[in-house]
Amino acid sequence: MAGHGADEHPHGADRLCEAGDRVYSRAVRRGRVPRRDAEPVPCLLELALLHPDPDDMDWLVPTSPQEVMTRLLRGMHDEVSASQRRVGSAVAAVEWYAGLGRQVRPAASGAEGPAIRVLDGLARIQAAMDEATQACTTEVLTVQPGGIRREAELSEGLHRALALRGRGVRMRDLYTHVARHGQGLLTYLELMGDAVEARTLDEVIDRLILFDRTVAFIPANSDRTMALELRHPAIVEYLVTVFERLWRLAIPLTAPLPDTGIEGISHREQSIAALLAEGHQDAVIAERLGISVRTCRAHIARLSETLGAASRTQLGVRIAQAGLDGPQHSSASVSAPGRESRTAR
Predict the structure, then answer these.
(1) For 70-117, what is each residue's pLDDT tens digit?
(2) 172 DSSP assignment
């Protein structure tokens, strides 16, 4: 969309440019338009008149004319004291949208209804999160994958967390075990006090944030520049159930990780051994546990040394012999096959 910046479209939804008028009208009539049709008119996305279709990101669906009318009237109420001249323009725009809405039946797609909303761009994601934070009154549930949390990530949402704590909202956070080693997370939890309870698992699902069990946010693409805002009760209830089951399996951050029961093998190495036994590659294991590939391979090397394996094939056999390919052991001490007992790391 180079060459079509906001400077070429200095207008609001109450006075669309001619090109924007044509594309939006076509989207309302047809229910959606290809994303390429909107490239010359970025104003339609900037003004939230068009949104990505969650079923096919190459298409854009329109905001209903009725919703646009509501936005305009709300904005007009706020601005009328500052600029009386805009009143006539806004009223004319409302009449135009109202007429357009009578010409067509509502689009069949429910993508832009209250149940599912696509948030395209970090600014819109942040705005939606801020809105949900302001409306939250009782509880926030989050799943935070990715290992050690960078201080920049924690600072990004700190203002929301502090606002929630100030209103007495309770927060429960799930992290991977690796996050225990990040000083930034420990500082954040100390700052939040008893408003936040944190637990950890070997691996968790992708990022999830739930407010008051009524609205959820999940990533919509791999680089997290798009997100889905979910308000459908059945979907939100399902995500709450997933969270609660993971929460019951997780270990409180204030409690130590359980001993593997095998001399010389750490809890993390036991998790890696189980994933190796399932046939996963090093990169996949590293991503699931929230560690780097280099760190993952260093643990695999220590596993091989501890279990006396000279190759990956032999390591798989040793993992099975030690019982590391199944449920985790109790705290009873077990010596690794083919090796003398060593102090656990």
Answers:
(1) 777 676 655 555 555 555 566 566 667 766 655 555 444 444 446 899
(2) E
